């Protein structure tokens, strides 16, 4: 069996995705005591400009303003709330 042919084009997702400045994402807030944070896998994003009603579990749209691929951390700007708390 030719496994190279069978697996051609396969790729695996990383647990620590990277982002480019100005990318727009939809994320869930994972912490809101102190800094508002969102995690995508092992990547941690600090959310700036989120209104007081944004709490853990809220689905929000954000724009990447800074990202460090070596530490898998970044800063994002709050754009809008997409959905209410999931719990």
Q: Could you please describe the fold and organization of this structure?
A:
By secondary structure, the chain is mainly beta. It has one domain (19-83): OB fold (Dihydrolipoamide Acetyltransferase, E2P). The chain is built from 1 helix and 5 strands; from the N terminus they run H-E-E-E-E-E. Strands 1-2-3-5-4 form a 5-stranded mixed β-barrel. Strand 2 and strand 3 form a beta hairpin. The protein is elongated and about 60 Å long. The mean pLDDT is 89.
Offer a quick outline of the entry.
The protein is mainly beta.
Number of helices in the DSSP assignment: 1
The helix/strand class is mainly beta
- At CATH level 3, the topology is OB fold (Dihydrolipoamide Acetyltransferase, E2P)
* Fraction in helix: under 10%
The radius of gyration over CA amounts to 16 Å
When the domains are counted, the total is 1
């Amino acid at each position: 069996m030719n496994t190279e042919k069978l697996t051609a084009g396969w790729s695996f997702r990383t647990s620590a995705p990277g982002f480019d400045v100005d990318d727009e994402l939809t994320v869930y807030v994972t912490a809101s005591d102190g800094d508002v944070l969102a995690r995508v896998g092992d990547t941690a994003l600090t959310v700036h400009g989120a209104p007081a009603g944004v709490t853990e579990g809220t689905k929000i749209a954000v724009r990447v303003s800074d990202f460090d691929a070596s530490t898998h951390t970044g800063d994002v700007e709050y754009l809008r709330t997409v959905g209410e708390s999931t719990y």
